[in-house]
Design goal:
Elements (H helix, E strand, L loop, with lengths): L1 E8 L8 E4 L4 E5 L6 H13 L12 E7 L5 E7 H6 L7 E4 L2 E4 L10 E3 L8 E4 L23 H41 L12 H14 L8 H10 L1 H34 L4 E5 L2 E6 L2 E3 L6 H15 L4 E5 L7 H14 L4 E6 L13 E3 L1
Parallel strand pairs: 3-14, 3-15, 9-13, 13-14
Antiparallel strand pairs: 1-2, 1-4, 4-5, 5-8, 6-7, 10-11, 11-12
Helix pairs in contact: 3-6, 3-7, 4-5, 4-6, 6-7, 6-8, 7-8
Length: about 375
């Protein structure tokens, strides 16, 4: 899905409409405080989610957002502030506990946008507000049972839970994709056993041995053959060479699938000094000189960087909206941020609102919109 155009009447008290055609890869909104940057992001996010609660207090008169779905369908969604005001706000539930009342977050969108064509269904989109270290706009913020929902400890725990869950969900999807690739590779190998042997050029036997070893290790298996014996058999047996060719094809596809994860690892360990951050199947590990620490005790800037890069992974080929991505980031990190996010996920459509000239330093003029 890609956003193509938006238009807002009465944005932050303006008399003239604000409208722009968006780029499919990177878009940066730049302006002074109070110019409406955050409101634009919220309006776009609200339109895609079809959730009027996101813009309940936004300063605007009317808005339209156009996008193209993955199936190539062009959709336009419109709304007015009068329509928003006419929709009753949902009432949150209060849960009584031994430590006092807890207000439960409201789950699920409150529809209100008019969609042409379409049924107004929610479109997969990610939004990182300025409160992104502990706030998930799609899921709400939970208060603690200790009666201090905004204590520093509680917010650190919220960050730990939020980022870990994001990574685990993404990693589980990636592992399922890899398993499907490997199952397909095994099916090709079995099929090839009953086909005529073609005349194929063989890769070096040492490369073939390593590829087969890695393929089996991914499935928890071990190649119980000496490398010399394998290489001799490989040189003599065209059937084995064909099987190895299928294994190598599968390994190439697997490495391509894992590429974004390796990019995040590389970026984190190049930018973050004094710590080794690893994205593993079991979670996110941070190693320092004296041992391991949790991601909840990282610095604010490190947390923001990790949160943003993980969200880039999770967004796949959809849109990611980020408000003030420069928060807590060193000026050097700000300078590299846009390129880093595009490196992690080239298919992503990024829409950012910023005060920082450094964030825009390497962004071409047609992708910058002043509000």
């Amino acid at each position: 899905m890609k956003i193509t155009h938006f238009s807002v009447q009465g944005l932050a008290g303006r008399t003239k409409p604000v409208e722009h055609v968006l780029q499919p890869n990177l878009n940066v909104f730049f302006g002074s405080n109070g110019s409406g940057k955050t409101s634009v992001l919220r309006l776009i996010y609200s339109a895609l989610r079809n959730d009027v609660e996101i813009i309940r207090r936004a300063p605007f008169e009317s808005a339209s957002v156009s996008f193209v779905t993955d199936a190539g369908v062009k959709v336009v969604r419109t709304i007015t502030s009068q329509q928003v005001a006419a929709i009753p706000a949902p009432q949150p539930q209060v849960l009584m506990t031994a430590n006092g009342p807890i207000t439960l977050p409201i789950f699920g969108p409150v529809p209100g946008w008019i969609s042409e064509p379409g049924d107004g269904s929610s479109i997969q989109t990610s939004y990182l507000p300025t409160s992104r270290l502990f706030d998930d706009p799609a899921g709400g913020v939970w208060g603690g049972g200790d009666g201090s929902p905004y204590s520093e400890l509680r917010l650190d725990q919220q960050f730990l839970s939020l980022v870990t869950n994001r990574w685990v969900n993404y990693n589980n999807q990636q592992l399922a994709q890899i398993r499907a690739l490997q199952d397909s590779g095994i099916a090709r190998i079995l099929t090839s056993l009953f086909e005529p042997l073609p005349a194929t050029e063989a890769d070096p036997s040492s490369v073939a041995f390593d590829d087969v070893t890695h393929f089996l290790e991914r499935r928890g298996l071990h190649l119980d053959v000496q490398q010399d014996n394998f290489e001799q058999k490989y040189a003599e047996d065209p059937g084995l060479r064909r099987i190895v060719a299928h294994i190598q094809e599968t390994e190439e596809q697997t490495l391509e699938t894992e590429a974004p994860r390796r990019e995040v690892d590389a970026l984190l360990n190049r930018l973050v000094r004094g710590k080794a951050i690893s994205l593993t199947d079991g979670g996110i590990q941070v190693q320092v000189e004296k041992g391991n620490i949790g991601i909840d005790v990282l610095s604010a800037g490190e947390k923001h960087l990790l949160r943003i890069l993980i969200e880039c992974l999770s967004a796949h080929s959809n849109c990611l909206l980020i408000d003030e991505p420069e928060l807590s980031l060193h000026i050097d990190w700000q300078h590299e941020l846009a390129a880093a996010m595009r490196t992690v996920n080239p298919e992503l459509q990024l829409v950012m609102a910023t005060h920082s000239p450094e964030v825009m330093a390497e962004v071409s003029d047609e992708k910058i919109f002043r509000l």
